[in-house]
Design brief:
By secondary structure, this protein is of the alpha/beta class. The protein is built from 11 helices and 9 strands.
């Protein structure tokens, strides 16, 4: 049985053209316009909702009116049935970012297309080219604050033991351990953060793995279902996909730190840990060789 937060390709095809259904394609604009898209799908990417005045790209635009105007142009109402899809093998979890943002803004009728564009095209389902111009929507934001973690919140948490809160780093293990990344002032991770790579939850056909398998993966990392879970990455996109995965398997208290490492690494009052010995081991670097 498909999870309530997901919709399968057959069910979506049967609903194409239904009033009240809004399909959002979050791939790049060229892929959407020239490579084809699901019939009736509108196009939007997470970048359109970022704070234009902030260096960290993951921070949401504080002008909710501007965000509402974009969503209304997509034809979204508060009671629309919204389905989000991407190419799951060619992005950073962008469909998760759109899902998390809309849920944070108070939308409650959200699903992600299981398998996305990968499965849709593999099954030779219908598609079309060019932009779609829907009737304007009337969406109004009602932010659900517990779904968003702010930098100061996280700083307060890491200052003392926090057994009831798990902090998850959704980036690659190399980034987590302290690999230098262009544009990032300080490498490493938030102290006490558990590494849970965002890209380990899909089957070969791009569908989400069985929830029981995912639960085992998370529990093996020490992430308990009764904890408050905070996800972060570089810009709150990969971590938003991890947020969706946690919600899928029944974790009730999950939030996304949208500023993530872009913001955290720029605040020199925010503590950072790294493990260069483990990083060298993963990268196959022998530190003794430099001195021989």
């Amino acid at each position: 049985m498909i999870h309530p937060l997901l919709i399968d390709t057959e069910s979506l095809q049967q609903q194409l053209g239904r009033p009240g259904l809004v399909i959002i394609d979050v791939r790049g604009k060229a892929a959407y316009e020239f490579g084809g898209h699901i019939p009736g799908a509108v196009h939007s990417t997470w970048h359109e909702y970022s704070d234009p005045n902030a260096v960290p790209k993951g921070l949401l635009n504080p002008d909710l009116g501007q965000i509402e105007r974009i969503l209304c142009r997509l034809g979204i109402n508060n009671d629309s049935d919204v389905v989000i899809y991407s190419n799951p093998f060619d992005n950073w979890g962008d469909e998760g970012r759109m899902f998390w943002m809309l849920e944070y803004l108070g939308h409650t009728r959200l699903r992600i297309l299981d398998g996305g564009w990968v499965k849709w095209t593999a099954e030779k389902r219908p598609f079309e080219h060019g932009p779609v111009s829907p009737a304007a929507g009337t969406f109004q934001a009602h932010p659900v604050q517990p779904l968003l973690t702010l930098k100061e919140d996280l700083k307060a948490i890491v200052r003392s033991p926090h057994p009831k809160t798990a902090i998850l780093d959704a980036r690659s293990v190399e980034e987590y351990l302290g690999k230098e990344v262009s544009g990032i002032p300080r490498p490493g991770h938030v102290p006490s953060a558990i590494h849970v790579a965002w890209n380990g939850f899909l089957n070969k056909d791009a569908t989400v793995k069985d929830p029981s398998v995912i639960k085992e993966m998370l529990q093996a990392k020490g992430v308990r279902v009764e904890q408050d879970v905070i996800c972060y990455c570089t810009g709150g996109v990969r971590s938003a996909w991890l947020y969706v995965i946690l919600k899928l398997v029944g974790y009730p208290h999950v939030s996304n730190y949208s500023g993530s490492w872009w913001e955290w690494s720029r605040d020199f009052a925010a503590p950072v840990e790294k493990d260069l010995h483990a990083l060298q081991k993963i990268l196959g670097i022998d530190p003794a060789a430099k001195h021989s």
